[in-house]
């Protein structure tokens, strides 16, 4: 008789160690199972030795599989957090520097492109990056992305004209798209599935903190040094992150993919990528961002250019979907992903949450500046309650998911908090007490934080046993997150601008609308008799801007309900946990 009492548990630990990915380094799950059946046998007399040897073999196999632990894991994790900090910071750091940048370059008509140029390449290329990760190693993809981001930052920092600055922002966007998806892919390969909730929560907290710190840091640099330091600051951070990745992160081969044979030359693998879909999605994103950037600013929403861009966007969307169906498994979004309710639900949910979070992040400081006459820096401090509550809730939801393995409840718990919070913010006026404003912010932010990271955890759990599809599934969700940011800001700001125009004409017809729209500080340079009417117009327009946010939060509840309810815990080595 042979004693295998320890073997099944160890074998299952090996198989379940990496989110359903292969045990052997670079092997598919089926090969890993075959290998696990070949574990050595020992007689009864040496059962204790067998256990020790099996344990050593397990540890060795875990090392070979690419899993990291101890100091090495945390150093890699810190480098990834630096990357998240950089690309999240650059979404908002220039917001307070824009007036000075525009003044230096005398290019007010190009102001929207400072933000749009960054989002354009991010949104347009992120799904292509996800497909690239099916043929290239995540380590080298991440390093390449950091290089592009650093190059773009340097170009922006030394720019002598607006065109160069916008070009640098576009290059930054390329790097940011690569970093975002590569980081999520790396996390899936170096950690166990039950560890990921904690790591993802940390990324979420860094992302939110960066969004808060960005405007404050940008304002400080602009006021005390130079706006160029908004970009120079990325260089040392990127250098540290790149060094850690080079020396500490293993270069793991992509997961086995039946559509891309191992013996196929790299150039042929690259040729099999969905170049048509990439071109279509890039043009689609460009048309939508142009329409949202120009509409209500350079042209009215009824202008033929804006109408044409929206129609073009619709036609490109139809063409993109058709191309994905035609290319099937070679597509940017394989049909299996398009048919997966978890991917679709998670993607829609993160879109709505980004609209809500960034909509609130932009409108709340505007309220304090226009209605309370606070400086940009002071208004950043005023919304700390909102951002801290987001961070606390991310920590709470991440801790719960790590402990109990369940992310699904937070898809349902977050929206009610945020709906109540943003609903109360809709009721504020110029005389609302500061304590009430803080309380409303906490409610709204806590709901956002509870649900914010859950979309990525749902996709990680869903594709635990099909890791070759994980980069593309993650890219789809990330694309919708970025699109929610870009389109969401456009929708919320448009609603606010339209209502402001209407209310200024009704309450203060003698006031120059363009003057008070482009500079809230101009309100308090007006004659005293005109100021209350303009402030009231701002109050009405800002509260109305919470309507699309409340709608988005409600839709997040509906879409989140359709996500599959997996467990993130590995019990008995089950591949992807189990479904409730």
TrEMBL record:
<feature type="compositionally biased region" description="Basic and acidic residues">
    <location>
        <begin position="40"/>
        <end position="61"/>
    </location>
</feature>
<feature type="transmembrane region" description="Helical">
    <location>
        <begin position="111"/>
        <end position="134"/>
    </location>
</feature>
<feature type="transmembrane region" description="Helical">
    <location>
        <begin position="171"/>
        <end position="191"/>
    </location>
</feature>
<feature type="transmembrane region" description="Helical">
    <location>
        <begin position="438"/>
        <end position="459"/>
    </location>
</feature>
<keyword id="KW-1133">Transmembrane helix</keyword>
<feature type="transmembrane region" description="Helical">
    <location>
        <begin position="306"/>
        <end position="327"/>
    </location>
</feature>
<feature type="transmembrane region" description="Helical">
    <location>
        <begin position="275"/>
        <end position="294"/>
    </location>
</feature>
<feature type="transmembrane region" description="Helical">
    <location>
        <begin position="407"/>
        <end position="426"/>
    </location>
</feature>
<dbReference type="GO" id="GO:0022857">
    <property type="term" value="F:transmembrane transporter activity"/>
</dbReference>
<feature type="region of interest" description="Disordered">
    <location>
        <begin position="32"/>
        <end position="61"/>
    </location>
</feature>
<feature type="transmembrane region" description="Helical">
    <location>
        <begin position="71"/>
        <end position="90"/>
    </location>
</feature>
<feature type="transmembrane region" description="Helical">
    <location>
        <begin position="343"/>
        <end position="368"/>
    </location>
</feature>
<dbReference type="InterPro" id="IPR036259">
    <property type="entry name" value="MFS_trans_sf"/>
</dbReference>
<feature type="domain" description="Major facilitator superfamily (MFS) profile">
    <location>
        <begin position="76"/>
        <end position="568"/>
    </location>
</feature>
<feature type="transmembrane region" description="Helical">
    <location>
        <begin position="380"/>
        <end position="401"/>
    </location>
</feature>
<keyword id="KW-0812">Transmembrane</keyword>
<feature type="transmembrane region" description="Helical">
    <location>
        <begin position="229"/>
        <end position="249"/>
    </location>
</feature>
<feature type="transmembrane region" description="Helical">
    <location>
        <begin position="197"/>
        <end position="217"/>
    </location>
</feature>
<feature type="transmembrane region" description="Helical">
    <location>
        <begin position="545"/>
        <end position="563"/>
    </location>
</feature>
<dbReference type="InterPro" id="IPR020846">
    <property type="entry name" value="MFS_dom"/>
</dbReference>
<dbReference type="InterPro" id="IPR011701">
    <property type="entry name" value="MFS"/>
</dbReference>
<keyword id="KW-0472">Membrane</keyword>
<feature type="transmembrane region" description="Helical">
    <location>
        <begin position="140"/>
        <end position="159"/>
    </location>
</feature>
<comment type="similarity">
    <text>Belongs to the major facilitator superfamily. TCR/Tet family.</text>
</comment>
<dbReference type="Pfam" id="PF07690">
    <property type="entry name" value="MFS_1"/>
</dbReference>
<dbReference type="GO" id="GO:0005886">
    <property type="term" value="C:plasma membrane"/>
</dbReference>
<protein>
    <recommendedName>
        <fullName>Major facilitator superfamily (MFS) profile domain-containing protein</fullName>
    </recommendedName>
</protein>
